Structures are given as structure tokens and as C-alpha cells.
Amino acid sequence: MRIVVTGGAGFIGSNLARTLVAAGDQVVVVDDLSAGSKANLEGVAVALLEGSILDRDLLDDAFAGADAVVHLAARGSVPRSLDDPLGSHHANATGTLEVLEAVRRAGKPHLVVASSASVYGPNAVLPNTEGATTDPASPYAVTKVATEQYTLVHADRFDLDALVFRFFNVFGPRQPANHAYAAVVPRFVDAALAGRPLVIEGDGTQAKDFTYVETVTTVIADAVHRRVTSPTPVNLAFGGHVSVRELVETLGRILGRQLETMPAPPRPGDVRLSQADPSRLRALFPGIEPVDLETGLRATVDWFRSQS
Prior knowledge:
The protein is α/β, with parallel strands linked by helices. The chain is 40% helix and 18% strand.
């Protein structure tokens, strides 16, 4: 298959590119390298088209002859969206609309789109079920609601084969740690390996549904190859509920030592508790089992060590 991955030089995208190439697919990556990097794709047989998803001509070139499009390109991070709401809107909401229109012009290849568990908001009842009312608490979360709604309306009104996944806390190799908006797992792994204290924002009881990136890319690849669709979003997580302090303990066990921590104020807009109801995911992908947290963390630690 010829598969286009927007944001394919980023963390999840570059891991997905590896999964797809290993399966024998022809992969085209569209990425402006604002968050991703060419280094993430070293040794991977992909065609890289450097540029923005807001560039219609670039999208038309990339999507020509595509069997499927996986739309991962986005400006991530809740705090970043609070610093620059308009930038997040342009990249995420308008960018998704440009992708959807380009898919229509390209003859309607199968489409997989990334959303986020942030759409559930801070007051959601756990576990998070896809039928729950969304309650976005940040500009980033609002853009992901828009991403979902634009995709589902296009699928319904313009007869697109589409599938929207809600990502939870994805972690693994190639996730950047060296910027102000870095996610908790790469920040902790990077600090632990460097002998620095792990900065815990808030009281550490906030709990997340951590999902190893290989699990995510395996599900996406299966969705593309089987052309899976859904009229509603689908959680892409398996119901884990691990606190930040438990994450520190697991990482310390992997490294064989107790890790020093340092308190810090909570991140603005952070959703304290998230946990997926995986029922819909398991119904669509009954043969896939997730990589467990400790196995995924060990692989992540090994990758970080290989980069030093």
C-alpha cells in the first residue's frame, strides 16, 4: 500500500513509519520539521516531503495515488496551546480541515486521524468512554474536538472512510525530552539517566493511561491495512491507571535505584486523571494486546541510553 503519514518525522509518526515499512508498505511522510526531525527517519525507506499541512499544493502532491492517509501532524502540548492559542488552532483545526479537503481531492483514500484524551476534560467520569460529553479545558483540547468533528462530518457528508483515534499518554523511543513542553515519561527518563531530580508537577497522585508507542503503531497499521472505520471516535489505550509517583517507582526499579524527586506547581490545564474504556478498541481490534508499562519503559530507557 501507498500510505501518507502527516507528522511522520515526529515521535509517533516516525515509529509508525518503521512499522509500515517493515510490513512492506510504501510510505510518504509530510512534515514541516517544527517538532519532528530527519534524524528520526534515519535508515527508514520513506519519501520525505518537507512542508506544512497548510500548503494545499504539497498535500495534493503527497496524497496523489495514496491508498491511505494517517494524519498525525499537530502542534501538541496543553501548556503550549495556552501560550499560543491561535498557533494551535491554525496547526490543528485548520490543518486538519486542509487534510480532509485534500483527501477529498485525492479520490478519498482511507483516513486515520489522531485526536486526544484531553477532549474528555478534568471532570470526566472514569473510565473515559467515547460516548461521554467532551469538556475541553485548554485551547489544545478544543482543537482536538474540532479535529474529531470535522473528520466525522466529512466522513458522513462526503462519504470518506475514516477512523478517529483518541490517544492517551503515548510514550517510547524518539519522544523528545529537551524542550519546555516535554511529556512526563521522556522528562523523567532523561533526568534519571543524567542523575538529576525528577520534577513532579503537582502532588504526584495524578494518574494516566500510559500507552507504549509500539502498541499504538501496531493498532494504526492494522486499521490502515484492514481499512477500519468508525462513526464515532475510538480510544487508543487499554485502561491503565498509573500515578506519576507509581511511574517514578517503576522507573527506579528498572534502573535499580531510588530516584530523587523535586516538587513543582501543577501544569496549567493538565487533566489530572485519565483512563480509557477500551471496549470499542477491543471490539475493532480483538487480536491486539498492549505492551505493558514496565516492558515499554525498559525499551524507552534502552533507547535513551543508546542516544548518549
